[in-house]
Amino acid sequence: MAQISPRLARTYFAEISAGSALPLDPEDLVHMVRLRQHGHVVIGDVAIRCYKNKAKWTYDERDIRRAAQALADFRLDLNDVIEVHLPSYHRHDERELEEQGRPDWREEIASWMYWHARHKHQEQRRYEDWDDSWKCIGANGLPGDLNWEEFTAAYSGRRQNIANTRPLELMTCSGGSLLLPRAYIELLDRWEQVTENLDARARTCSRCRAQGPRGGAWRTPSPLGYVTLCPPCSGATFQRYTGHLSGVLYKSARTRSTRADGYLCRLCTDARAAVWDHCHDHGHVRGPLCGSCNTYEGKSTAHSFLQDQEGAALHLLECRGCLERRTLPARYHAALARMHVEATERHMIRTRRCSHVPWIEHVELTRGMYRFKLSCWWHKRTWTKDVTVAETAALMEKFVDQALAAEQTSAVVPAPRRPTSDTTVQA
Q1: Helix, strand, or coil (residue 379)
Q2: Could you read off the pLDDT of 192-202 as tens digits, one per residue?
Q3: φ and ψ of 192, to 5 deg
Q4: List of residues 6+ apart from 65 with CB closer than 8 A
C-alpha cells in the first residue's frame, strides 16, 4: 500500500477529477472532519478510508485514484431535473437525539435557507414586530419573504458543502420550485446511506457489540487509528487515574516514564487517555486526558470550558500551585469576570431590566480592570462594564471555595488529591 499525505491526496484527487460534471470540493481530504466519527472521508457516494501511520494520518493512493476516477466519470444531465421539497422548520434541539446526527442533505440545505430568512426578517423589523412568518415556505418556494437571487448572492463564495460537493451551484429556482438534477439527487441519497452505514459500524463496540451514540463518543484513539469501546469495556481495558502524580512536575522523569494511554480520561471517564494534561502556570500534572478533552481544555474559550465541562474546576485544581493559592490559571480569570457580568449585567428598558443575556463583543485588561464591551442584539444597545482585578480575585476565591465544598459533599465528583510533601519530583 502506497501511503500518501492528506495534501498530496487532495492534489492527486483534484488532478484526476478535474473534468467531473460535479462541483467537487475535496478540502475534507486535508481537514478529515469526520475522522473521529467514522474514520473516512466521503466524497459523493464514495468513502475513502483514513489510515494512521507513525502518528500521522494518511491515505492509500489507490483509494484516492479510484474515487477520483469514479467521480470524474459521473454522468450528469442538467436538463433532467426533479423538484426538491424543503422539510418544515424545527429547532435542532427539539429533534430526537438519535435523529440529530443523521445525514440529511435536504435538511442541511433547508437550514441554510431558514437561517438567512430569519436574519432578513429580524434585520428589517423592530424587535416588537418579530414573528414566526420566516419559518413558513412562501409562494416563491423559499422560507419567509426570501428570494432566490438574494439567497444565492449571500452564500456566494462560502463553502456550503454537502458530500464534498457544492449543491447550490447545481440548484435552480423556477416558478416557486427548487430544482436539482435527478442524477445528483440520487447521488446525495446514496451519500446519506453510505454515511449512515459508516456511522453505524463505527458506533459498535469492538468487544461487546453494543451500539453507542452518534458523534464518536465511544471512539478512542490508538496507535493505528480510532477504535470503539463502550464505557464498561473501556473501564475493563484501561485503569482509572487515582491521582498518584498529584504535585509532580510535568517535565519530571516520573511523568516521562508513565504512559498516559494506560488510563481512562480523567474528565469524560469514557475514552482512553492520550496525554498528561498539566498546568502551564505552575507546571504540575493535572491528570490523563483523551485527545478530545485535552483539546477542549486548551483551545476552547475558558468560560465555555468552566461552564460546559463537568468537573472542569476540580480538574484544574489538581495542580498543586492552583490548589494551594485557591486560584485557577491566568487565562481563566477573565472568564470568571465574564461569567459574573453575564449573570448580573442588564440594561434598562424604560423602567424594567432587559431579560436577555448581553452579548460580550470584546474584553480588555486596562488600568487594573477588565473592561467588557456589551451589546443587546434585541434592543440595539451597546455599553461597557468594568470589573476590577481585585473584584475578579474575590470572584475567583469564591468560585474555588464553592467547587471544593461541592467536592466534599458529593460522592459522585472525584476529589482532587491534596498535595503532600513527598510527591514532588524535580525536572
Answers
A1: coil
A2: 999 999 999 99
A3: -55, -45
A4: 12, 16
